[in-house]
Design brief:
The complex is a heterodimer of chains A (about 400) and B (about 150).
Chain A (H helix, E strand, L loop, with lengths): L5 E6 L11 E7 L2 E8 L7 H6 L3 H9 L6 H15 L6 H29 L3 H22 L8 E2 L2 E2 L5 H27 L1 H7 L7 H6 L4 H5 L7 H4 L20 H25 L16 E9 L2 E9 L5 E7 L1 H13 L7 H7 L4 H4 L17 H14 L4 H14 L1
Antiparallel strand pairs in A: 1-2, 2-3, 4-5, 6-7, 7-8
Chain B lengths: L2 H13 L6 E2 L5 E5 L5 H11 L4 E10 L2 E9 L5 E9 L4 E3 L8 H12 L2 E3 L32
Parallel strand pairs in B: 2-5, 6-7
Antiparallel strand pairs in B: 1-2, 3-4, 4-5
The chains are: A alpha+beta (about 400), B alpha/beta (about 150).
Amino acid sequence: MPNSRKFKIPIGPQHPALKEPEGFSIALLGEKILGLDIRLGYNHRGVEKACEERSYIQAMYLVERVCGICSHAHSTCFIQAVEEIGAIQVPKRAQYIRTIIAELERIHSHLLWLGVAGHEIGFDTLLMYTWRDREVVMDLLALISGNRVNYGMNTFGGVRRDITPGHVAEILKGMDILEERTKYYVEVATQESTIIKRLSGVGVLTLKDALALDAVGPTSRASGVDRDVRRDDPYAAYSEVKFDVITDDHCDVYGRVIVRVKELMEAYKIVRQCCQQMPEGPLTVKVPRKIPAGEAISRYEAPRGEDVHYVKSNGGEKPERVKIRAPTLANVQAVKCMLKDGQLADMPIVVAAIDPCFSCTDRLISIAEPRKDKRVMRWDELRDHGIAWHRARGIDMDGLNLKFRKMLERV
Amino acid sequence: MSQEENIKQELITKFGIPEANFRLPRERRIFVEVGQEIFPAVFDYAVRQLKFCHLCTMTGLDDGDKLSVIYHLAQDRSIMINIKTSVPKDNPKLMSVTSYFSSADAYERELADLLGFKVEGLPPGNRYPLTDDWPRDQFPLRKDWKTPATKV
């Protein structure tokens, strides 16, 4: 039977789904995935160490660059910890502005993801639509902050830029357009048979597994885990706005689409409430250059899930220790579980469905597929093996090369 | 009494942890420091009895002649407890908590790679996050390890 042979194939370090590096080694039986080994770390840049060598404000700008998509998530999570150590009271208006930017960032991230998901299943129309609509929110972010990514809105004790009444009008206009579009995506996601059939039952992560593996964000909520830091451990202005935590019990990639599309609708709700409730007042308070000794841990619901930053201060100008745990690290563990016993062809969409961000994460996990004849080949060994394999079957490239060279000489 | 205070009192009566080892800086946060000898019992109690069922992350610290690790655990919908324990730097042995949380795997490898912890009970696997050819005796997050930019 041709399907009965087990073999292992390497995928990566160039990512099969998103353009970021990580390595998969997949054990296959025919087309079925028996298990896999994930190697991360290709993007390790030593950000935590670098923070220890910089002043708090420099570290904040560095941390913002941990990730391009959820930059505001990281910088807010970091400064929340520092502000807690320094007992800095952030003005209400600044907290609302942080919340608005956070939700605009979530909208841009989820729309981007929806496009990528569409692309991975060959539904490129969806990619074109969502990425076109994403420009609405990108323009809003550029209008407010001057940047499409790395907004640089935060500073210790508040925010650096105001959201003016003119901005608010533009934001509300944008939210109306996007809500209209998102209603259409909800319709597409719940009625379009291509999506339903392609994604149902793919990359299954049961509620029990999601809890056991500590999955976070939309990945866990699509498996029925009712956790959201915005509600459970509120920060910024989230305790003052009303929104629903979206969960779904499909436990597969389809469920993850539903959760993200519905979270978009909640994000519009939050942005509108913030725009209406945002009080007048100062944007920042004065902050001393030195932060008193102490430690704090800050949690933040980034678009991909819970972001955790721990900061320790020794009373100097530089942080003593900064620890960053990005959501993808928590979710990448669940990928092994989702892919096991699945089809190889489902791998790109399953990996993409956690919305991975490896520049944030860069961690590693492993699964050992028990096998006795384990042998790792170096590149040159693999090449020699390939030449010998073909020669044994009567294909000799050396002879062919010689033939071609002679032909070329004649020309 | 607040819920945080209740948990603190419960741990004090149960394990005799000195009150000075606790810090409740704000609502939903508990910081506690425990010795290695009682750590396994405290951790087990926090996870199984007090239902701190979500391991947010683990932080390793270089505290001079000791290496410390903080386990950041969260309850559903509320409090986060941060349990800190230390081991001597010349023998930084740590018991793996992968039997409680399989997600600890990556965090513990990080402790081993970046700070030089010896984690016992960690299943074999790739290193993380450093490359395979990174020297085994170089631990970048230790305070005496300097980056080339800051080396004098």
